[in-house]
């Protein structure tokens, strides 16, 4: 198998994709956002609850490739307690990384460096960005309530 594919679908990404946390929708979220990648058909719906400006609870359903699912899984592990500003920062840093104009996300999101092998695979960027876009949008909606 091609080394670039082995790097892309490494054991950590496959492990994250196999065990998605917080994969149950919330009953009474402050915001719900659904996103779909028209290119590949990947979909995510996320629910979140904000309290005192921070994410208090999170739920999601993900139907995506291993890369998009791994991104959603990692977000689910790290999202509780984060602010709207931090979630926007994460989205923007991931977008810059994938576009080739930025480094991997910084603290408290340095674990997302695991997605660096996706950079040369432009057709995968849409699926990977779905959870970042959905979370930033939902947090902004919830913040306004």
Secondary structure blueprint with pairings:
Elements: H1 3-8, H2 11-18, E1 31-36, E2 43-51, E3 54-63, H3 66-78, H4 84-99, H5 122-144
Antiparallel strand pairs: 1-2, 2-3
Helix pairs in contact: 2-3, 3-5, 4-5
What's a quick, concise take on this entry?
With 145 residues, the protein is an alpha+beta fold. The protein has helices spanning 3-8, 11-18, 66-78, 84-99, 122-144, and strands at 31-36, 43-51, 54-63. Helices cover 46% and strands 17% of the residues.
Cα end-to-end separation: 50 Å
Number of domains: 1
The major pleated sheet works out as:
3 strands, antiparallel
Categorize the overall geometry. Answer: globular
* CATH architecture designation: Alpha-Beta Complex
Average pLDDT taken over every residue: 92
Poorly predicted residue ranges = none
Helix coverage percent? 40-55%
Main sheet: strand order: 1-2-3
Describe the protein in words.
- The protein is α+β, with helices and mostly antiparallel strands.
- It has one domain (3-144): Sufe protein. Chain: A.
- Helices cover 46% and strands 17% of the residues.
- The protein contains five helices and three strands; from the N terminus they run ααβββααα.
- The protein has helices at residues 3-8, 11-18, 66-78, 84-99, 122-144, and strands spanning 31-36, 43-51, 54-63.
- The chain has a three-stranded antiparallel beta sheet.
- A hairpin with a 2-residue loop joins strand 2 and strand 3 (54-63).
- Helix 4 (84-99) packs antiparallel against helix 5 (122-144).
- The mean pLDDT is 92.
């Amino acid at each position: 198998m091609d080394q670039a594919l082995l790097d892309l679908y490494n054991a950590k990404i496959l492990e994250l994709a196999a065990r998605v946390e917080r994969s149950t929708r919330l009953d009474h979220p402050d915001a719900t956002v659904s996103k779909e990648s028209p290119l590949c058909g990947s979909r995510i719906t996320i629910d979140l609850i904000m309290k005192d400006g921070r994410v208090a609870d999170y739920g999601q359903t993900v139907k995506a490739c291993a890369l998009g699912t791994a991104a959603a899984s990692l977000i689910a592990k790290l999202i509780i307690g984060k602010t709207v500003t931090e979630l926007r920062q994460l989205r923007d840093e991931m977008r810059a990384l994938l576009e080739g104009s930025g480094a991997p996300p910084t603290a408290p999101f340095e674990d997302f460096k695991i997605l660096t092998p996706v950079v040369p695979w432009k057709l995968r960027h849409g699926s990977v960005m779905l959870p970042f876009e959905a979370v930033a949008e939902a947090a902004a909606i919830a913040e306004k309530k």
